[in-house]
Design brief:
Layout (H helix, E strand, L loop, with lengths): L7 H7 L5 H16 L5 H13 L3 H8 L12 H19 L7 H30 L20
Helix pairs in contact: 2-3, 2-4, 5-6
């Protein structure tokens, strides 16, 4: 008597779809492996693309089977920095076209990079304004030490 072999339909029925969080964890594992020298940047980019395209858990497991799991992250600022670093790597892959993403997704990735720059420029403009305005209300020196608006 022979045992029945599973058909493709049976195999597909047993597969479990992966969640966005599971994809994020797999991408984090790949990025950490690249950061520690276990993968080249090209290998990490290729695997990240495949991780983001994966639909089933077994596909994710195959992409990270030869890598150690993500290192535990301490609470506080270390956790924030780790999450930010992983997200920036994902956004860079989308922005450079290494990972599929529509126009809207690429614009969002661009904002991730330009947002901090715009905040720094705005903050710098406020500081510069305060320095050149004399730093206080009322009459006083204007820009570059000249007469103020009320001192004329």
């Amino acid at each position: 008597m022979t045992t029945p072999t599973p058909t493709d339909a049976d195999t597909r029925r047993d597969r479990v779809r992966c969640s966005d969080r599971e994809r994020d964890r797999a991408a984090e594992t790949v990025h950490e492996a690249a950061g520690t020298g276990r993968l080249t940047l090209d290998e990490a980019g290729d695997r990240t693309e495949e991780v983001l395209r994966a639909r089933y858990r077994d596909e994710l497991e195959a992409l990270t089977a030869d890598l150690p799991g993500p290192a535990p992250v301490a609470a506080g600022w270390a956790a924030v920095w780790a999450a930010l670093s992983a997200q920036i790597l994902v956004e860079a892959a989308i922005l450079t076209g290494r990972t599929p993403g529509g126009v809207g997704r690429r614009l969002l990735a661009l904002l991730v990079f330009l947002g901090p720059v715009l905040l720094l420029l705005g903050g710098g403009a406020l500081v510069l304004h305060a320095l050149l305005d004399g730093g206080g209300p009322g009459p006083g020196p204007g820009p570059l030490g000249g007469p103020g608006p009320r001192g004329r």
